[in-house]
Write a structure and sequence with these properties.
This protein is mainly α. The protein has 10 helices and no strands. The protein has one domain: Up-down Bundle (Four Helix Bundle (Hemerythrin (Met), subunit A)), CATH 1.20.120. The protein starts with 17 loop residues before the first helix and ends with a helix.
Amino acid sequence: MSKLTRAYKFIDVSDYGRPVARIIAQQLKTTKVTAIHITLLFGLSGTLAIALMGLTHYWAAGFFLVLKSILDAADGQLARIKNQPSYIGRYWDSILDSILNFALIFSIAMFTDTNIGWGLLAYLCMQTQGTVYNYYHVIFRHRTEGEITSQIFENKVPKAYPGESQAYVTLLFRVFRILYKVFDEFIYYLDPRAYRGTVSPKWFMFFISFYGLGFQLLIIAIFLVAGWIHYIIPFFIAYSILIPVFILTRRLLLK
């Protein structure tokens, strides 16, 4: 199962782990393992990547970053295969992503003796890039009858799915909003009419996918293996130059 219907699938460079994620989900389909368990595993994988990076085991760190991306795809895949949609899983996924991104960038800053201010800027840039991807991707899914657990505007507490604790969903939603509200509202401010426009073409979504978290982590893994750890923070700051390009393209050409 996929987040998108067959007719609207596009080449998503950030979703390179999907084939392996499908295999993992199929193997776990009839077990007691849940999507939440896989989410916690990707949190562990990201933590191991940071620890190994601190020990200068860059190949191993890169491996666990890529594994984290695969597991990040596998949790949602398993939830869809088992037909167990979950707001708890959805918010835990995003919360762990934000925490790991913060820890990853600031660890890189520490390991390379980079000024903490540049580290903070790189983190903000990385999160904003990911928000651009998520904003247009969620709109695309909603407009094409794809998966809709993630909402275009997440500004109110959703009703918990059967079997979920509403109090727990509410708590995780509030933490999620603290971590993502500024980024979501910033991108919405830049392109508030995106959800009303025409369905974005596949070529546009392909280019947007270069801002997806999976591809961001792949870039970091490649830089680590190549011995370019000192260039990771400058790269993600400079990589933000594409944000106005994507948004202007959507506003001017894809009305």
